[in-house]
Write a structure and sequence with these properties.
The complex is a heterodimer of chains A (110) and B (111). By secondary structure, chain A is mainly beta. Chain A is 0% helix and 55% strand. In chain A, strands 2, 4, 5, 9, 10 and 11 form a six-stranded mixed beta sheet that branches. In chain A, strands 1-3-8-7-6 form a five-stranded antiparallel beta sheet, with no helix packed on it. With 111 residues, chain B is an all-beta fold. In chain B, strands 2, 4, 5, 6, 9, 10 and 11 form a seven-stranded mixed beta sheet that branches. Chain B has a four-stranded antiparallel beta sheet with strand order 1-3-8-7, with no helix packed on it. The relative contact order of chain B is 0.34. Chains A and B meet through strand 4, strand 5, strand 9 and strand 10 of A and strand 5 and strand 10 of B.
Chain lengths: 110, 111
């Protein structure tokens, strides 16, 4: 079945440093979504990427979808303490349900 | 104003008991889901319902039985609870296969 892996599993940065999480799928994806889950909270939708090579920005967050539509990345510039949480990618193939990645837990030291 | 609500928020119970978790969404979405998130934060889909009909059942034990009385509600009943059922269960809904709106979660602890 479809597998979606994320690395790193965990990252601890100093406030102001950049952060990147990578997502890799075993199959070609129709689209990929990113979610953020704050500690003790629930996943919240951030963005969806559909096109090969697509790049989208949300303030300090930059999302990329690979040319082969099998990988994606989320980059945060100049992290802030409000960025703390677990970031999940979630990929879909055709009309199948979303498969969530294993998540990257981000800790930001003030 | 709550988009997706779940009750209860916390559930502590003994092994072997039967329990239910309720979910309601007021977004008018057609599709609802149940996810299980384990202690390592893995989010795994359990069930998906579209307009009260089951469309996904991801090899979940028969002890878990979802019920959708109408398209705004999706409840989860669990029989004969086991230690390994301890997790956070999230309900979610979506319209048109786009972004998913998650409920606040139900933390189930089986003793």
């Amino acid at each position: 079945g479809q597998q979606v892996m994320q690395i790193p599993q965990y990252q601890h940065v100093q406030e102001g440093e950049d952060f990147t999480t990578y997502c890799n799928s075993s199959t070609t994806l129709s689209n990929i979504q990113w979610y953020k889950q704050r500690p003790g909270g629930h996943p919240v939708f951030l963005i969806q990427l559909v096109k090969s090579g697509e790049v989208k920005k949300q303030k300090r967050l930059t999302f990329q979808f690979g040319e082969a539509k099998k990988n994606s990345s989320l980059h945060i510039t100049a992290t802030q303490t409000t960025d703390v949480g677990t970031y999940f990618c979630a990929g879909r193939t055709g009309r199948r349900a979303l498969t969530f990645g294993s998540g990257t837990r981000l800790q930001v030291q003030p | 104003d709550t988009a997706v609500s779940q009750t209860p928020k916390y559930l502590v119970t003994q092994m072997g008991n039967d329990k239910s978790i309720k979910c309601e969404q007021n977004l008018g979405h057609d599709t609802m889901y149940w996810y299980k998130q384990d202690s390592k934060k893995f989010l795994k889909i359990m069930f998906s319902y579209n307009n009260k009909e089951l469309i996904i059942n991801e090899t979940v034990p028969n002890r878990f039985s979802p019920k959708s009385p109408d398209k705004a509600h999706l409840n989860l009943h669990i029989n004969s609870l086991e230690l390994g059922d301890s997790a956070v269960y999230f309900c979610a809904s979506t319209d048109g296969g786009l972004k998913q709106f998650f409920g606040p979660g139900t933390r189930l602890t089986v003793l």
